[in-house]
Design goal:
alpha/beta
């Protein structure tokens, strides 16, 4: 299992120290939630902060755009040196074009689905994707309880991926801990995004390793 700690749950008064802990850990990615207060009812951090994070972080960056018109920010995300750019299916009027532009920028293209969006909406594009991120909470705020229906969505997405021949990784974000992580691993998830479970634990790397072993 690959693990992507979510910076949204970090201690922002000690952000440098938090990133150093991630660098020293067995995390596979650092997950960055960019919120605009329009697509989601919250604002997180902008590109000046992200540029500092990118300079300090040695892990590949998984940038999750919770914004309207995320295609406007492709060059900015590329400028961070991000490995993955995740855009919401619900926010992209021309999703295929956006995915192609992400690829042209040299990044893995991920598409995110909100809890109420069926995985079948990706039937005609999943072969072009490197990653699908399933939200297991409503996007915009950390600390929400895990939506159990996500397990069915993971299984459906795995079936869709296998039937299409796609190699897209299945990522899940929201309410992830050792218990829900085990359920997601059994359902077929490849990457777990974990916020509070990692950043608010006494031993960050021990928590990451526990998830990686699922």
């Amino acid at each position: 299992m690959k693990i992507a700690p979510s910076l949204l749950a970090a201690d922002f008064l000690n952000l440098g120290n938090e990133i150093e802990k991630i660098n020293a850990s067995e995390a596979d990615f650092l997950h960055l939630d960019v919120m605009d207060g329009v697509f989601v009812p919250n604002i997180s951090f902008g590109f000046p902060v992200l540029e500092g994070v990118a300079r300090a972080c040695s892990k590949p960056l998984d940038v999750h755009m919770m914004t309207v018109e995320p295609e406007k920010w492709i060059s900015h995300v590329r400028g961070l040196g991000a490995a993955v750019m995740n855009v919401h299916q619900e926010a992209c009027l021309h999703l295929y074009s956006t995915v192609q532009h992400i690829h042209e920028a040299g990044m893995m293209a991920g598409v995110t689905l909100n809890p109420a969006t069926p995985v079948e909406t990706l039937t005609d594009i999943i072969e072009d994707l490197d990653l699908v991120l399933l939200m297991s909470v409503e996007p915009g705020f950390g600390g929400q309880p895990f939506i159990m229906h996500t397990l069915d969505k993971v299984r459906k997405l795995k079936s869709l991926r296998n039937a299409s021949g796609s190699r897209a990784l299945i990522e899940v974000d929201g309410g992830v801990n050792a218990d829900t992580g085990a359920l997601l691993a059994n359902a077929g998830a490849d990457i777990l995004v974990a916020g509070s479970y990692v950043f608010r634990s006494e031993d960050m790397n021990a928590s990451i390793l526990k998830l990686k072993e699922l």
